[in-house]
Amino acid sequence: MADVLLSGKGPFKEEVQQLVEESGVAESAEEILGPFSDIASSVAEALWDAVLPSSTTNSLHWPFLVLTVILTTGLWVIHKGRGAKGADGLERHYGLMEYLMPRSIYTHLSARVDIGLYLIDRGLMPVWIVLFLGGLAPFVEQNTIGAMQWVFGASPQLQPTTGWKLFYGAVSLLIADMIFYFIHLMMHRTKIGWAIHKVHHSAQVLTPITRFREHFIAAPIWGSGFAVGLAMSGGVFAYLFNGGITQITVLNLGIFSFIYALNGNFRHYHVAFRYPRWLEYWIQSPGMHHTHHSMLEKHWTTNLGLVTSIWDRIFGTLYISERNEHTPWGLTPEDQAEYTTLSQNLVTPLRDIYRILRGTPTGDPNYKL
Ligand SMILES: [Zn+2]
Ligand SMILES: [Zn+2]
Questions:
Q1: How far apart are the CA of 101 and the centre of ligand 2, in A?
Q2: Maximum Cα interatomic distance, the chain, rounded to a whole number of Å
Q3: Rounded to the nearest whole angstrom, what is the distance from the C-alpha of residue 23 to the centroid of ligand 2?
Q4: Which ligand places an atom closest to the C-alpha of 289?
Q5: What is the pLDDT of residue 46?
Q6: Which of 140, 286, 287, 331 could form a disulfide with 336 if both were Cys (CB 3.0 to 4.6 A apart)?
Q7: Band of the pLDDT at 245, cuts 50, 70, 90?
Q8: In whole angstroms, what is the distance from residue 66 CA to residue 71 CA?
Q9: Which ligand is nearest to the CA of 211?
């Protein structure tokens, strides 16, 4: 029954199709990719795009970088050269070129480590995609459709009006937001989670590539969380519309991918792109992520959200900063000493996980409870 509810095809499907064919398991490709809905493939695209800057939904794709530069130039004009930070996390007055790309940031060791971690992540991503998205997401989606049919009978075959399409986009965004918050909270509040996620926080400067800075074992954790949540909602929508719903697109991109990519660039940029204070109580401005990356204790485990501030408010982790607040990025000095070079960022989390599992104290003063 579920196979009559096939939804729209996304570019991701073709990518995976090719990957699966190349790996010599072509005969199972149809089975794997069959029920993959538009919504699940949007997420898959977002993850896949983390490894391919050439693909259209990646925030490192040139139109997004151009848009980032245009918006930043606008901020430079509006704020008269203020609002950008140096490698020390202190706001300063810059000429336009330094404002866009301060030398102290782009020559920093941390920025080079970002690139190394990104490339390793990129190399491993196809493995995670086949394992978690090729297998897990369609399985969850298919079973969600099956459960809906079992409980409610045949699909009501609703017509996908513009209103429904917007609703579909909004629901997927809110689900992704919720999943992101809880995985992120777990990364900060469990010892093993923090050992892994410290790699993201050991960035001493922020560049758009810092967005992808994670230990390679973090990818399947984020990936499987998103895959399950969005495949469930994809299944519900595929059932309601008999597979015939797609998202509203902006610049030929799903609205979800568009917001995700643009937001992703500014979250890890040295220019504090802030919203009015009242709005930050509802929506995470990219600038709010500056405090999330700060080593100051008052900033620890704050602003964990991705899109909305709702979860941060509910769980008391919201932090609205003052204008140009000092946010020295990175870990506290004791921790940073073990998470600075590329090899340290690859090996130390594995060593710490081993110690945690054996019950040996990790000597971690910066365990952010
Ligand atoms: Zn974090
Ligand atoms: Zn970050």
A1: 18
A2: 64
A3: 34
A4: 2
A5: 54
A6: 331
A7: low
A8: 9
A9: 2
